[in-house]
Predict the structure of Glycosyltransferase family 4 protein.
Amino acid sequence: MANAYPSEAAIYRNGFLHRRVLAYREAGVETEVFYLHPPATESYEYEYEGVRVVVGDARAYERHIGENSYDSYMIHFATPSMVRPLRTNSVTSPITIWIHGFEAESWHRRWFNFVSDPATIRAAVRKKREYYDAQLAFMRELYTDDSLDLRIVNVSKWFQNFVVEPDAGVELSHGEVIPNFIDDKIFEYRPKLEDDRLKILSIRPYASRKYANDLTVKAIQELATRPYFSRLQFTLYGEGALFHETIAPLDGFDNVAIHNRFLAQAEIPNVHGEHGIFLTPTRFDSQGVSMCEAMSSGLVPVGTDVSAISEFVADGVSGLLAPSEDAIALADQVERLYFNPELYLRLSAAATESVRASCGRGNTIERELLLIQRGVRRA
């Protein structure tokens, strides 16, 4: 059960979830998707890459749960409307809920989106009252609910220990930490050459300041003051309300290619293959999936040492990290790779090895399937 799912017309909707479903099916687990979509007044079905998807509003979802029985229920993005039908229909099968971010965070976690002016601060406080307080109360009650056969999956230890548990004020007795799956069949390792360190890539949404694209721009501006800048090539892909205002300072740089669009997943490996460094600062991340995908392809991540990032990137071992909000330090890390091609090649190989160990099939899909199957056997 999900709040969105890919289709031919919208290939970006929860693509990470689709990768899971395909992997479950490859393992022989018959899987069906219900896409809870409140605007869908008429229920309908479609098929996407062999996966059957049922779409409907809350009434259709309630009816679907009542009329069907499944060995296991798996929820991505828990909300009252997603969980309520399981309770009202007295579902006894095991239920696994993945916690990804906003649904389990206190209102202040994304401070960077509302500190620019008084109006955004007032809007944030209003949203705290109208959404966050009720949602966190719901999550707190859900974590302690013993009427459901429930297990909770977080994508990083940092996120569980420093966000989920403290924000809800509970300790998860039935929590698991399993990162999002990075498919090395898609993001294949391609050995890098020394000159690949001169080609720097950014693939980010521009819908929130969480992605710190402004720091990417400032880092490029800083590098422009250094004598070797003309040897570097930058490629930025992205889309969102903040795009034009964020990238405006880069107008006029001949070695900065800007693409105001998202990439289809099938395109990303080829773009990875044309670059050597993934410039990926952030202000808040429970994992950093696009960063991990780039690492799987052999790119060296240059990011910020905040939130869960250091759980997936060891500074100086599998990538390079800069302090929070420090664009000059990001530029310095790019410079470090420029002057140390041997370090670059070593980090490239280590990045791939590291992310395969932490986010490869064995540590993600296989563990998820074991968790689900143990629950089914117990039930």
User: Anything to note?
Assistant: The longest strand covers residues 51-56. The domain at 15-181+362-378 is CATH 3.40.50 (Rossmann fold). The two ends are 20 Å apart (CA to CA).
